[in-house]
Each structure stands twice: as C-alpha cells, then as structure tokens.
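We were asked to recover a plausible sequence for a given structure. The inputs and outputs are reproduced exactly as logged, with field labels preserved.

PROBLEM: sequence recovery
POSITIONS: 336
GIVEN STRUCTURE:
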C-alpha cells in the first residue's frame, strides 16, 4: 500500500490566468491507498481529465534515505516503483546513490561494479517487470581500476534495456560551510561527455547533483542537445540544500525552458552523513508542480509533463533565438 504519494493533475487552457504562459490549474491530492488513486481519478471532471490526458505524460520523482545495505535499498526502490505504477507514472526518477550510501567517504568503492553487473541487473528486471522507465542517478560504476569509480546516471526503459548513461562531470570537492569536508575526486573519475537521450517523456538531459551549480552543462543540454526535460538526481547536504537547492533547480528550469525532475536523498544515512531531501518537479516557467509534503519522508511526487506547455513558453519567449552565440562572446573577449 502506498505510504506517501502526491498526485498532480494539470488542466491547460483556463482563461482565468492568461498572463501566465503555462495557463495551468493544479490540484494536489494526498493519497493513502491505491483504491484512493483510482477513486479520485474516476471522479475527476471530464474536461479536466481530457485536458490532462492531451499531449501529456505522467512522471514521478522519488525521495528516500539510502543506507549501506544493497538489499534494503532495493526493497525501498521496489516499493516506490509499485507506488509510481499505481499512480500512473511511466517514468520514475531515483536520487543519487539510490542503491548504496556508505557510512563513510569512499565506502562505495567496495560495492562498485560494471554497468552490466548483478546490481544493475536487478534494477533492469524491476523496470521490465513493472513496465516503467527508471532514471537511476548516481550508480557506483567501477572505474579504470579497483580504487576508482564513476558516479553514473543510468536510464533504463520499460523493457529493461539500458538506453543511455552519463558520468558525473563536476565532482564535489568542497569544504561545506557549517558542515563536513568532501573530496569526491579522491575516489571518483569525472565524466567528459554531455548526454541527452530520446524517450516517451521528451528528450532527457542527464546530470548528477553537483552539476546543478554549473549552468553551462544545462545550456549545452538545451541549446546544443535539444533537451526538454532535465533530470537532477542528488544527495545535497543539509547546509547547501537549505541555502540553494530549490533556487538552483528553478533557475535551471527557467533559463532553459525545460521541465526539471529532481530526485533527492533525504535524512540521516548514518551518524556522519545527512541529506537535505525535498524532491520536486518543476515546469518550464519555474513553477513547482510536484513535491512531497515532507522533505524528509520516503515517497514519490507525481506530475504531468505537458509538451504543449514547453512549446508555448518557447514560442512566446524565444530565448534560443535571442541568445548570443559562442562566436559573439569570443569576439567580445578578443576586443578587450
């Protein structure tokens, strides 16, 4: 039985909000059981339900507290997949380190394995058996030797096939104000490729956690790779999450005119590690359209990707036509 689902139904075209290009009316439900999902769905007004179904696809983002137990984390992910399927989602996005969080820095080396290893095979079977796409962001893929890994974001389709993968570019080597000191590069190899992949949910732009602070990769994904939906699996620390998490996510959505699906680790993983949480889904106008009511609870938030909203915003504010090309900036720099 689902513990914590937030269901979002969007209806487009309401004239009461013409100044907002998204023209959305959003209704939130807290649903306690699968029976409630279908009961509420069947009694939705016909106009709203028809509008929500037109040119839309339902997606979900997960929030969880992974620990140093592969089996326990897989059990949590399996339960969240069932909740997402019950809610009608066709894609579920998991946070960084979904399968394992060590009790101390570098522990992940001990469980890292190739992308075709037994850990990922279990998640591929989960996707296939549940007929749902999975975004698995922050998988500990074995690196070039036994002392290194890659922080890899994997996309699996509803047949269990690996459609694409991206290795985190920006590594978290930070002395967090009011927090701990992190040195991700001491055991992690950085990626060198920008990755976008086609899907039934639009063209997906893949990133991981600390990438969020570097708008260049998101600009590349939108304007050079054609991304429509940006995926941000993360495990933000509590101090950095409190200060910047929601602001950065909304900024990335607004400046790229993309949907953003952010899946977050939440709460205490061990005595030494705590994550901020607050998984959310943001539309291309910067509105939060899906969010758990509790930023620390384990559960999912659900919303609809509406391709008409993407098209409308980009047509009315064509920043892709207005932005200056890289050649312009090089000429400006040369003239200094």
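RECOVERED SEQUENCE:
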């Amino acid at each position: 039985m689902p513990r914590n689902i937030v269901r979002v139904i969007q209806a487009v075209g309401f004239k009461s909000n013409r100044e907002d290009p998204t023209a959305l009316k959003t209704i939130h439900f807290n649903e306690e059981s699968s029976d409630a999902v279908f009961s509420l769905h069947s009694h939705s007004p016909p106009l709203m339900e028809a509008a929500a179904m037109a040119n839309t696809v339902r997606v979900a983002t997960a929030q969880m507290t992974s620990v140093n137990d592969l089996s326990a984390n897989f059990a949590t992910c399996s339960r969240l997949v069932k909740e997402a399927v019950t809610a009608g989602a066709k894609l579920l996005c998991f946070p960084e380190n979904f399968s394992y969080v060590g009790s101390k820095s570098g522990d992940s080396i001990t469980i890292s394995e190739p992308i075709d290893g037994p850990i990922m095979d279990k998640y591929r079977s989960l996707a296939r058996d549940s007929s749902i796409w999975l975004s698995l962001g922050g998988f500990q893929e074995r690196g070039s030797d036994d002392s290194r890994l890659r922080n890899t974001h994997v996309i699996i389709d509803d047949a269990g096939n690996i459609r694409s993968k991206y290795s985190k570019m920006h590594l978290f080597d930070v002395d967090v104000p009011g927090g701990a000191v992190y040195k991700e590069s001491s055991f992690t190899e950085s990626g060198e490729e920008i990755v976008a992949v086609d899907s039934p949910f639009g063209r997906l732009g893949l990133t991981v956690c600390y990438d969020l602070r570097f708008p260049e990769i998101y600009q590349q994904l939108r304007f050079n790779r054609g991304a429509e939906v940006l995926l941000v699996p993360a495990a933000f620390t509590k101090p950095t999450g409190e200060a910047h998490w929601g602001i950065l996510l909304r900024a990335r959505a607004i400046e790229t005119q993309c949907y953003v699906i952010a899946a977050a680790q939440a709460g205490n993983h061990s005595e030494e590690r705590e994550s901020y949480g607050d998984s959310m889904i943001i539309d291309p106008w910067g509105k939060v359209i899906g969010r758990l009511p509790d930023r620390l609870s384990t559960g999912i938030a659900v919303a609809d990707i509406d391709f008409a909203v993407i098209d409308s915003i980009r047509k009315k504010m064509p920043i892709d036509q207005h932005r200056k090309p890289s050649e312009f900036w090089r000429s400006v720099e040369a003239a200094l």
